[in-house]
C-alpha cells in the first residue's frame, strides 16, 4: 500500500522531469568529396605514412552545436543544428580521407601510429561555423606539420569562406560548412603532398 501511495504521489511530477535536451530532427556530419578507392591496399615504407593528430579547438567548438558569430564578440548557436560528434574529430577524419585520396599515401589516425608515424599533421581548428555579419560559412585551420625524422615544424593557416544562400538554419549550416571544410582539406592535402 505504501509503494502505491508513493507511486501516485510521484505521477504529477513525471511530466516535469527531463533527462536531457530534446534531440534535433537530424544530426549533421561531413562528407568528403575526395574519392577513396574501395579495396585498394596501400603500403607505407619507413617514414612515408601521414599521421593526422588530434586537433585542438577554442571552447566555442568543444561542443556538437554549430556556432554563429553574430558580432565580433558574440557567439550564438544555430537552432536545431547539431553535429554527430565534435567538429575537430569530424574535420580530422575529413583531412585524413582527403590526404589519402589526393596524395596516395597511407594516412593513420592518432591512435594508429604506434611505431612509425611518418609525417605528423596537427594544429588548431580556429573557426568552424557561420558568420552572420558576412553571411558566410567559415573554416579556419592553423596547421602544423613535422615531416619524417626532421625536427623542424612548419606552420600555415588555411581558410575557406562559402556564401550562405537563404536563411541560417541547420540544413544551410551543414551544406555550407561541408563545402568550406572540403576546400580547406584539399588545400592542406596539396601542402602535405608537396613535402
From TrEMBL:
Gene3D superfamilies per record: ABC-type transport auxiliary lipoprotein component (3.40.50.10610)
Keywords: Signal
Domain named ABC-type transport auxiliary lipoprotein component: residues: 43-189
Highest taxon of source: Bacteria
Span of the signal peptide: 1-20
Alphabetical list of Pfam families matching this protein: ABC_trans_aux
InterPro entries per UniProt: ABC_trans_aux
Name of the protein: ABC transporter
Organism (species): Sphingomonas lenta
Amino acid at each position: 500500500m505504501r509503494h502505491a501511495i508513493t507511486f501516485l504521489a510521484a505521477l504529477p511530477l513525471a511530466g516535469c522531469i527531463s533527462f536531457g535536451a530534446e534531440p534535433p530532427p537530424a544530426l549533421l556530419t561531413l562528407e568528403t568529396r575526395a574519392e577513396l578507392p574501395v579495396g585498394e591496399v596501400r603500403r607505407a615504407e619507413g617514414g612515408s605514412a601521414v599521421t593526422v593528430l588530434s586537433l585542438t579547438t577554442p571552447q566555442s567548438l568543444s561542443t556538437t552545436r554549430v556556432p554563429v558569430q553574430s558580432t565580433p564578440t558574440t557567439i550564438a548557436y544555430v537552432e536545431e543544428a547539431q553535429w554527430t560528434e565534435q567538429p575537430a574529430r569530424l574535420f580530422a577524419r575529413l583531412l585524413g580521407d582527403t590526404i589519402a585520396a589526393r596524395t596516395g599515401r597511407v594516412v593513420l589516425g592518432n591512435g594508429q601510429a604506434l611505431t612509425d608515424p611518418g609525417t605528423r599533421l596537427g594544429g588548431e581548428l580556429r573557426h568552424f561555423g557561420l558568420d552572420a555579419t558576412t553571411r558566410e560559412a567559415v573554416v579556419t585551420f592553423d596547421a602544423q606539420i613535422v615531416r619524417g625524422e626532421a625536427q623542424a615544424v612548419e606552420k600555415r593557416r588555411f581558410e575557406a569562406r562559402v556564401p550562405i544562400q537563404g536563411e541560417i538554419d541547420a540544413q544551410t549550416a551543414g551544406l555550407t560548412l561541408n563545402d568550406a571544410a572540403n576546400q580547406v582539406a584539399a588545400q592542406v592535402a596539396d601542402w602535405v603532398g608537396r613535402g
